[in-house]
Amino acid sequence: MITIEQLYQLYVQHPIISTDTRKIASGSIFFALKGDKFDANTFAAQAVEAGAAYAVVDNPDVATGDRFVLVDDVLTSLQHLAAYHRRQLQIPVIGLTGTNGKTTTKELINAVLSQKFNTLATQGNLNNHIGVPLTILAIRAQHQMAVIEMGANHQKEIEFLCTIAQPSHGLITNVGKAHLEGFGGVEGVKKGKGELYDYLKKTGNTAFINSDDQVLLKMQTERDLENVIFYGKNINPDLLVNGKLLENSPFLTLKWCDKESSCYNVKTNLTGAYNLDNILAAICIGTNFGLTTDEINNGIEGYQPKNNRSQIQKTVTNTLICDFYNANPSSMFVAIENMDKLTANRKVMILGDMFEMGTEAAIEHTAVIRKALEANVDECIFIGKEFSSQQTEVQNTALINTTFYLSAEDAITGLKINPIKNATVLIKGSRGMLLERLMELF
User: Fold this and answer.
1) Lowest mean pLDDT among 83-97, 143-157, 394-408
2) Nearest of 350, 313, 359, 307 to residue 332 by alpha carbon
3) Residue 68 pairs with which residues in a beta bridge?
4) How far apart are the first and last CA of the chain?
5) Which domains does the chain have, with CATH numbers?
């Protein structure tokens, strides 16, 4: 059986990792991972034939030559290899997690740091027990910085991912109501996300903290974190940077100031007042690592949101705020609050069910409905079984045009009959609702 040190020597010679036989890179190392419905050991020979230098397998029956590397467990070997590689690196690695805004914040940090450094960041949301090792193993000698997103839906996951990514710097965007079923409630979410602070405390590494977030401040105090850099919206000498929104119509323009009270205005391609915190985090990190004002502003101004996260799309008759990559009560509330404050002639909210709410599903969907109906908007449309099951709770309080649809298919039928025109439309729901199917209607 090969040791991690020996496997690492193979990796040094062949530093491209493949896990999908449909995308085998020539000279790569193929890791035969198992899934719920597949065992890639059965594709190992195919991977070698397709050009992989080696195939790492954990089934002795398929290890039929010197290009097959037999290990006890392929996934564990991948994770150990990534952790070993990380220990060889001498670059700053920024690890971030949080309930909302992880991916957008990661992209903003990357956009800023890339103005000065050769930076590698998590691709998409490859932020789990497989994605994090793959990201770490993509770091090459030319990279000067890395930004690693870490996601979780159970306690102890962030703790484990920290043993692989070994962040020198860390950021929790926020702690809110998401994956309540897996975490065991809000306190479980707090404990799970706080595992990043636990790691930073243990290692003496640096945390970037939003000084406006009382939950994060309490978590910091409880752990007595020593190396802390603050950012926020309030003017305070303890903050490395502070900032405020100047415009939200629907693109954000903000003013930010450094410790010397020098202030700068930045126009962004982002919508959503809640993104101010994410932008300030990126500005804070850029400032900490010595970027110039122009470099920081160029990074923020040049960032184009994608993947249906706070993404603006203009059609012939409507302005769409596409935010249907995911949803939970916390992100729903801030999205609704943003629509409430948004400057627009006509405002419509289309909200889809939130998944993984467990026993809190009814309470949380009712709360979102009530929040939406209090907002300064012209029309609310709710889609999904959970929202529809709660409509009797609020039907007598709706003062604005309100419609419930049991499914996205029903909504498509209804919106074809009653199309929305000349409006700014928020579309938000959990990924499983597939709300992108509504796009053709606008």
Assistant:
1) 394-408
2) 350
3) 55
4) 58
5) 4-79 (3.40.1390.10), 89-302 (3.40.1190.10), 311-441 (3.90.190.20)
Could you give the angle at the alpha carbon of 119 between the alpha carbons of 118 and 122, nearest 5°? Answer: 155
Checking if the pLDDT of 273 tops 80, the result is yes
Q: Is the pLDDT of residue 128 over 70?
A: yes
Task: Fill in the DSSP letter of residue 355.
Answer: P
For the record, the structure tokens of 111 come out as 């956009």
**Strand, helix or coil at 429?**
coil
This prediction has a pTM of 0.87
277's enclosing H/E stretch is helix 275-288
Confidence at residue 181, expressed as pLDDT on a 0 to 100 scale: 65
Q: At 286, phi and psi to the nearest 5? A: -60, -45
Average pLDDT estimate for 191-218: 95
**Smallest Cα–Cα separation from 349: which of 248, 424, 412, 249?**
424
For the record, the structure tokens of 232 come out as: 């926020």
The sign of the CA dihedral 38, 41, 45, 50 is positive
In this prediction, residue 360 has a pLDDT band, given cuts at 50, 70 and 90, of: confident
